[in-house]
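Task card 7
Instruction: Convert sequence to structure tokens.
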Amino acid sequence: SLSDPILEVSLSNLPQGSSSIYATTIAAYIFFGSAMYLIAKDFDWFTTLRHEFLAQRRVQNYTIYLSGLPKEMQSNHAIREYFTHCFSHHDSDIVADVQLAVKIPKLEKACAKRDKILPKLEHAINLRDVKGKCP
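Output:
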């Protein structure tokens, strides 16, 4: 006398003491166990690829950003000397390049202008993609 098809196949429709509950429990363990296994395999795959990528000698993998430098460290030469001294036991040519940008008012002004224009551009792109018309 159940009218909802979902209730007909739910555990609440099983008679009390039915052995079907064991099959449902075992199936749930198998399902979630295999899901956890696949997630663990995927994580191992991701970790392996991530380590391979980070082990490549690419500038992006070894670029650092420094802020709050004391006055005596605010020169390309001082920073190069510092990092060469810190890591010289690995490789004498460990520091590939040093570029110090202490005062960048033009760049800050350009970034502020870009941040102001960006929402308008994104809105225009959205209009083009959704409505098919260029504003």
